[in-house]
Write a structure and sequence with these properties.
Layout: E1 7-9, H1 11-18, H2 25-34, E2 39-42, H3 43-52, H4 56-67, E3 72-74, H5 78-90, H6 98-110, E4 114-116, H7 120-125, E5 127-128, E6 132-133, E7 135-137
Parallel strand pairs: 1-2, 1-4, 2-3, 4-7
Antiparallel strand pairs: 5-6
Helix pairs in contact: 1-2, 1-3, 3-6, 5-6
Amino acid sequence: MNTPNTLLVDTGPLVALADKRDAAHVACTTFLAAHRGRLITTWAVLTEFSHLTPTIAATLRLYRWIDRGGMDILPLGRDELVRAIDWIEKYADRPMDLADASLVVAAMNTGIHTVWTLDRNDFDTYRLPGRKRFRLAMP
């Protein structure tokens, strides 16, 4: 699953893409237009997006784009949740939310360590096993 130019996608860029008033909208739109590779996210990220997005129309646009092959969604079953809980406990001082924890688990499961995020502070702090850092794909 880990191929060159494959990115894990956090909530921030999705919200910025959906909201033209968002300060990162233009940068994220430009970044997405230039990206040649796969995009992967998790159900926890999509849930967070649906709560932060300005309208149901924006949410439906994202879901339709995913349906057309714009992005893959990794499962978040019981095993992944248990692993995510461990990460949430480890970073309780930040605090780490389920969306971020699901991306850490996804990174471990897929070997993809590049994340498209606007949340530089957290993903600069999180460490994968072996103290490996995330690579940040930032617009």
